[in-house]
Amino acid sequence: MGSASAVFKEFMEAAFTPFTTQVWKDKLAGGFTMSASRSGDKLAVLEQLAVFAAQMGMQWIGVADMPGNNWSGGTRDDVNRLGSWLGLMGRSHADRGPEEAGSRGDRITAERYGERIARLAQRWVNAVPYETPRMTEHEARALSASLRETDDTRGVLTGA
Fold first, then answer.
1. Dihedral pair phi/psi, residue 12, rounded to 5°
2. pLDDT tens digits, 19-71
3. Going by C-beta distance under 8 Å and a sequence separation of 6 or more, which residues neighbour residue 132?
4. How many CA atoms lie within 13 A of 57 on its CB side?
5. pLDDT in the model for residue 28
6. Complete DSSP assignment for 130-160
7. Quick check: 88 and 33 in contact, CB under 8 A?
């Protein structure tokens, strides 16, 4: 309903000690949100999460995939189909269970986002040299098109 859940707000309210002691300072943070509506005010939720992380002194990680489904050849199965960068956004049907949450593109975007956070965590924790992967809009569209051509997304995700 355009806001973080009551359970998460309770967690935020209980975080006074981590705030005053800065125990989460420089930790990595990222977030996601899902709603049944195309907008569902998901940006408001991500803003709440990012501000909370900033107050804790955390380093926020956004989505780095180019937007999908923003052209005549796009579909709901495109990577980052909702065009979100602050955090991951997904959309699911209100009358379906969690096992069917999000489109194929939403699930792939979530996997890619998780992989990005893991790579950045390795870089951050282990001082591992980090090569910034970049993708042009044309390459992003080609990626989304290739995902529609095959059910084997593992190779696309990992570059294998």
1. -60, -45
2. 888 888 888 999 998 888 888 789 999 999 999 999 999 999 999 999 998 88
3. none
4. 11
5. 93
6. -------HHHHHHHHHHHHH-S--HHHHHT-
7. yes
